[in-house]
Design brief:
Length: about 230
């Protein structure tokens, strides 16, 4: 049976300050690897972004969406689907956010000042879906590990850029709170030693179908070792 592979967590150098691959090259990379699609989840204006916090909100959002827009155009040109999402950050705690769009963001300047609880509440109240990215990541700039099991829909239990221990802890966390599980590469570079994502028996038309495939269990996690 043919399975359709999708990346759920990837960054572009146009928007994510830590990104090392352009939107065009990112899309071409996944096309070459046989993927059916990818979700661009650049760091939001609250995180490690190229977008200046001094700009007016509307301009900040327009610049934030550029990575996705460039990737989407290239995806249409070469035949791979590109979906929109983002990674909201608070002191090293990151929430992958799916199911909402640029128009929604333009109307929500208050997002810049919200704590994680308020952010989660407004996103989910408006039909968004939140996955806690790499919840047990350790780094010098992270002051603490924050777990908010009642404020997320899913947990990223397989992140290609994290250790086996960190991923195993995330998996246990999801089990203990009966949260949905998902996988993603957290790709900032293009070629990695290993990729992770989801695969589905049917192609996905948009990000909402991606979310629904995770919710209803038709999506399964996979990993891909690169030579």
């Amino acid at each position: 049976m043919q399975l359709y592979k999708y990346e759920t967590h990837a960054h572009t150098s146009e928007v994510s300050l830590c990104g090392k691959i352009s939107a065009v090259d990112l899309v071409r990379f996944y096309k070459e690897k046989g993927y059916s699609g990818l979700c661009v989840t650049d760091h939001f204006v609250t995180g490690n972004t190229t977008v200046s916090k001094k700009l007016p909100w509307e301009q900040r959002i327009e610049l934030f969406c550029k990575g996705f827009e460039i990737a989407n155009e290239e995806g249409k040109r070469i035949g791979i689907d590109v979906f929109f999402g983002w990674e909201h950050s608070f002191r090293g705690t990151d929430f992958l956010t799916y199911g909402l769009d640029m128009e929604w963001l333009l109307k929500r300047p208050e997002l810049a000042e919200m704590d994680l609880n308020a952010y989660s509440d407004i996103v989910r109240a408006n039909g968004g879906f939140i996955a806690h990215a790499h919840p047990f990541r350790e780094a010098g700039y992270i002051d603490m590990i924050r777990l908010l099991p009642r404020k997320v829909d899913a947990v990223e239990v397989d992140n290609s850029c994290r250790t086996d221990f960190e991923n195993d802890m995330a998996d246990q966390y999801a089990d203990n709170y009966r949260l949905l599980k998902m996988a993603g590469s957290d790709n900032h570079h293009g070629p990695l030693k290993r990729l992770a994502g989801i695969q589905t028996p049917q192609p996905l038309k948009n990000v909402n179908e991606m979310v629904n495939s995770i919710i209803n269990g038709t999506a399964t996690m996979f990993s891909l070792e690169l030579s």
